[in-house]
Write a structure and sequence with these properties.
Blueprint lengths: L4 H11 L4 H8 L3 H8 L10 H8 L18
């Protein structure tokens, strides 16, 4: 189930056939950051969020900024 912004990012990356390293280049971060976002280890911060939304081409409704269990979509 796609619930967090990191989940949306991972799905979009895979659908476009990109590796984490290439996506990291596009977003201006290191690949480890992309990996952590996709695994919901760390939230996507306010500086990176606009670039992630631009990559996705949409802003997921009510996406949680915090990767904890209670931050999932309601």
């Amino acid at each position: 189930m796609v619930e967090t912004l990191g989940d949306h990012l991972r799905l979009a990356r895979i659908e476009r056939g990109l590796k984490q390293t290439h996506l990291a280049e596009l977003l201006g971060v290191v690949y480890q950051t992309v990996e952590k976002w996709e695994r919901n280890v760390v939230p996507i911060g306010p500086k990176s969020r606009p670039r992630v939304i631009a990559f996705l081409g949409y802003e997921p409704p009510q996406v949680a900024a915090n990767p904890t269990a209670d931050s999932r979509l309601v």
